[in-house]
C-alpha cells in the first residue's frame, strides 16, 4: 500500500508504531508551544546560554535566586543605597572617608572632654572671657603671668617698687 491509497486524516496516533515518528519526520516549525506539555521542557533540555536577560519576565529574579556574595559594587546603580537601607551601627569609623564628618554633622553638646585629644584646645580656640577665676587652679597664676601694674601697690606697701617685692609678705 502506498500513501496515495490512504485517505487524508484516516491515520491516528493509535495506528503509529512506537518510535515510528522521528525527528526527520517532523517538519521544521511544526511543533508550537501549544503542542508542548506544561513542564515538559526540563533544564537539561535548555542549551547553555539559551536563556538571556530579554527572556526573563519582569520581577522573575528574586533575592532567593541570587547567589549570596555575588552582588558587587559594579552591580549597584549610583545612589541606589539609601540611609534607610543601612542597618544602625553597620558603618564603623574605618568605613568613613577622611574629612567626611563635618561640624554640621555633630550634634551640639555631644563632644565631651574625653573626646578631645591632649593639646587639641589651643589659645585661638578659647573665647575671650571664657576662662574665669573658678577655672584657674590654685597657684596657677605666677608673677611672670601678671602685667606690670596689674595689681596696684597700696600705701601699706609703698616701700615696694614691684610685685616681686611682695613675695613672703603678709
Overall residue-averaged pLDDT value: 86
Strand portion, in percent? under 5%
Classify the secondary structure makeup into a structural class.
Answer: little secondary structure
Question: What is the overall shape?
Answer: rod-shaped
- Counting DSSP H or I runs of 4 or more residues, the number of helices is 0
Radius of gyration computed on alpha carbons? 46 Å
Query: Which stretches are low in confidence, meaning pLDDT under 50 for 5 or more residues running?
Result: none
Helix amount? under 10%
Distance between the termini: 147 Å
Number of distinct beta strands: 0
| Biggest sheet features | none
Summarize the helices and strands and which ones pair or pack.
Layout lengths: L170
Describe the model.
This protein is low in regular secondary structure and 170 residues long. Helix content is 0%, strand content 0%. It has no helix or strand. The chain is rod-shaped. The model has no long low-confidence stretch (mean pLDDT 86).
Q: Key features?
A:
single chain; 170 residues; little secondary structure; 0% helix
